[in-house]
């Protein structure tokens, strides 16, 4: 009987104890790159072609729930360790007029400007037309998508812990 072939990006990393983990990692690579490409192209279709994936994620996070957020809150929610990258994105978004900053004590809190909220709305319209309609046509089960999201969030915690362990070696 032939040994099961695993769909992986790096066969030399496949462990006999957890070959499926290598398959998951390859799926994460493919999904992550596809998602990043989608977000950037969706924003381009919404009218702003020069934002990076992180710029866009920061903009959406700042716009979320219509409440101002500090740099550390944005970093925490997006799970970005290097606050300088998020700070750079916030400065870029402020310069473009999509985000406002209000100093409170020693910290700056960020919120979206009217232009930023309008841009997020245009992004949503493109997302509805291109992504949501496709999901609906394919008959994707919303509950299953929610279950996958929960599993991926849990897996991110496992990778965070493994990262801390590797840093301590």
From TrEMBL:
Alphabetical list of InterPro entries matching this protein: HTH_MarR-typ, Trans_reg_MarR_HTH, WH-like_DNA-bd_sf, WH_DNA-bd_sf
Pfam families: HTH_27
Record domain HTH marR-type: where: 52-116
GO MF term set: DNA-binding transcription factor activity
Name this polypeptide is given: Transcriptional regulator
């Amino acid at each position: 009987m032939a040994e099961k072939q695993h769909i992986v990006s790096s066969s030399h990393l496949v462990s006999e104890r957890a070959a499926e983990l290598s398959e998951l990692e390859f799926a994460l690579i493919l999904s992550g790159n596809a998602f990043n490409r989608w977000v950037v192209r969706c924003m381009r279709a919404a009218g702003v072609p020069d934002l990076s994936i992180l710029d866009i994620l920061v903009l959406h996070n700042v716009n979320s729930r219509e409440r101002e957020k500090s740099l550390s809150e944005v970093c925490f929610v997006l799970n970005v360790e290097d606050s300088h990258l998020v700070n750079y994105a916030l400065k870029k978004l402020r310069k473009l007029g999509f985000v406002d900053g209000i100093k409170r004590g020693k910290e700056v809190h960020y919120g979206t400007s009217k232009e930023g909220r309008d841009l997020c709305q245009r992004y949503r319209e493109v997302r509805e037309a291109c992504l949501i309609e496709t999901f609906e046509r394919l008959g994707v089960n919303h509950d299953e998508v929610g279950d996958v999201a929960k599993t991926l969030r849990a897996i991110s915690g496992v990778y965070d812990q493994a990262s801390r362990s590797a840093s301590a070696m």
